[in-house]
Amino acid sequence: MIDFLSSIYLWIKAFHVMAVISWMAGLFYLPRLFVYHASARDNGECAETFPVMERKLYRYIMQPAMIASWIAGLLMIAVIGFSDIWLHVKLTMVILLTVYHFWLGRMVVRFARGENDKPEKFYRMINEIPTLLMIVIVIMVIVKPF
Predict the structure, then answer these.
(1) What is the DSSP letter of 40?
(2) 3-state secondary structure of 81
(3) Quick one: CA torsion of 98, 82, 22, 29, rounded to 10 degrees?
(4) Is the Cβ–Cβ distance between 67 and 20 less than 8 Å?
(5) How far apart are alpha carbons 126 and 39 in whole angstroms?
(6) CA-closest candidate to residue 11, choices 79, 97, 88
(7) Which residues of the chain have pLDDT under 70?
(8) Where are the alpha helices (DSSP H) in 113-128?
(9) N or C: which end of the chain has fewer CB within 10 A?
C-alpha cells in the first residue's frame, strides 16, 4: 500500500509542477501584455486585440492552471501533512500569489472596459511581484530552511 501511495504522490507532484509552470508563465506574461496595452492607447487595432489576448490568457490558461495547482497542492498536503513551518510559509506565499492573480483579473476587466488609468511603468513594476513570491516558494520547497 505504501508503494502505491508513493507512486500516486509522485504523479500528483508531477501534475502540480506542470500546473504551476503554466500558471507562473501567465502571471509573468499578463502584466507584460498590460505594458504593451497601456503604451498603445491610441492605436485602434491594438485597442481591440489586447483585450482579447488578455482575456483568453487569463480565462483559458491562467485560471485552469491556478485551480489545478491548488488542487494538486492540497492533495499533496493531504498525503504529507501540514506540520512543517516551511509549508506554512510556502502556502502563505501561494495565497499572496492567488490574490495577485485575482487582482490581475480585475485589471483584465478594467482594460477591456477602457478604464485603465495606470502608465506602462506601473505594469513593469508589478511584473516583479510573482518573481519575488516565486523565489520564496522555491526556497521553501527545495531548501526547507524551517
Answers:
(1) T
(2) coil
(3) 30
(4) no
(5) 16
(6) 79
(7) 1-2, 41-43
(8) 120-126
(9) N
Give the pLDDT confidence of 49-73 residue by residue, as tens digits: 999 999 999 999 999 999 999 999 9
With vertex at residue 20, the alpha carbon angle to CA 97 and CA 101, rounded to the nearest 5 degrees, is 30
Cell (9 digits) for 20: 504551476
Residue in this structure with the C-alpha cell 497601456, named with its chain if needed: 38
Residues 6+ apart with CB under 8 A from 76: 9, 12, 13, 16
**Which residue in 62, 52, 137 sits closest to 102, CA to CA?**
62
Q: How far apart are CA 98 and CA 103, in angstroms?
A: 9
CB 90 within 8 A of CB 140: yes
User: Using a CB cutoff of 8 Å and minimum separation of 24, what contacts does 81-84 make?
Assistant: 84/144, 84/146
